[in-house]
Amino acid sequence: MGKTFKPVLIILVLFSLHISSSYGQSSCANYNFARNQVFRFCNDLPYLNSFLHWNYDQSAKTVKIAYRHTGVSSSRWVAWAINPTGRGMVGAQALVAFQKADGTMRAYTAPVSGYQTQLQEGDLSFPVSDLSATYARNEMIIFATLKLDNLSSTVNQVWQEGPVSGDSPAMHSTTGPNVQSTGNLNLLSGATGTTGGAIHGLLNAVSWGILLPIGAVFARYLKVFPSADPAWFYLHAICQSSAYIIGVAGWATGLRLGSQSPGVQYTSHRIIGIVLFCLGTLQVSALLLRPKKEHKHRFYWNIYHHCIGYSVIVLSIINIFKGFDILNPQEKWKTAYIGILIGLAIVATILEVYTWFVVVKRKKSSSPHKMQNGVNGTNGYNGYGARSQDRV
Ligand code: HEM
């Protein structure tokens, strides 16, 4: 067993480290602003050649931003907005910029109350200062400082570009990327709904949150059937090892997200993550370090392996929900995850009932021989497991 798994494990660990180290490299990180302005965080926005750079001052509750839009001609307007009330354009508190006919730049604020907006200048729902814009080499940049007293650290952002007509912005295209340019922004961690945070969330939800319980289901329910021995063990081991590998990759992406924001910690999420990593490592080491099935302490080892196993599953699920709270993804992701958990719980309940049924039936039919064969003697299928055939 150890011989087969060791090289696979090593390859997978290396692969997971590769994923975690390469995903975070974004092109915005290499950008240098004029006049030595330095922004601590940045994100490559996924549509419309856009980049957001920012500094967040948590105590003053201010965010200094630079919204950069490349490949844009001088007859276009660009805009970036926070939407405190929803996900799309309506409700957006926009910063708008374009070049006027006289060649000077206009940068102003415009709250968007509906799709018929003409982007008239107006106050936003939060104070904005130091608003300015530049245009050079087909690149428009809006600079501003926002005071966000009442907003949470994760906000909805929207960005856009469209034509300028007679020194006013006209309607943007309403197809393709122009209607996809919305997302989340985590001001504290630098995570957006589309990049690092999503990868972290997905890897962890799939591994710790889905594969791990499935692997436990294999062990708990297949074990009862003599014909599934040792297949259940292989399924369990493969499922849990791959969950662990993907989980470690997810965990490492989380460390990277965290290291982008020193001073800001989601303490309980982080502590549970570290505990999970340790317990998960312990569980996977069972592949190589478990007492032989005949060993006199094997019974106690099984209890230990089960207790840690179930604790890891419970902690993982708790931590995934904590992650949802931090990343604040679209509701559909949380719903999908809850749906998968409910599905797994239903399958497990049905299997639990069925297993008891099989075990009780088997116990009844085998009880006359019990004295001769002993508890485990009849077919000896429980070699890898904790349970004798009479127990569930
Ligand atoms: C000149 C002013 C604007 C007009 C007339 C306008 C008009 C519209 C219309 C009619 C739609 C609906 C398209 C559809 O679903 O068929 C739309 C969508 C959208 N607009 Fe605008 N818009 C303007 C400015 C802005 C600004 C300033 C932003 C962002 C800062 C923006 C971001 C979006 C986004 C992301 C969508 C797609 C998501 C949604 O429907 O909310 N728009 N716009």
From TrEMBL:
InterPro entries: AIR12_DOMON (IPR045265), Cyt_b561/ferric_Rdtase_TM (IPR006593), DOMON_domain (IPR005018), UCP037471 (IPR017214). Residues 48-162 form the DOMON domain. The keyword Ubl conjugation does not apply. Its cofactor is heme b. Its main location: membrane. Keywords: Electron transport, Membrane, Signal, Transmembrane, Transmembrane helix, Transport. Pfam families: Cytochrom_B561, DUF568. Residues 168-360 form the Cytochrome b561 domain. Residues 1-24 form the signal peptide. Residues 367-392 are annotated as: Disordered. The chain crosses the membrane at residues 198-219, 231-251, 271-289, 301-324, 336-360. Residues 373-385 have a biased composition (Low complexity). Binds 2 heme b groups non-covalently. It is found in: Membrane. This is Cytochrome b561 and DOMON domain-containing protein. It comes from Rehmannia glutinosa. The lineage of its organism: Eukaryota, Viridiplantae, Streptophyta, Embryophyta, Tracheophyta.
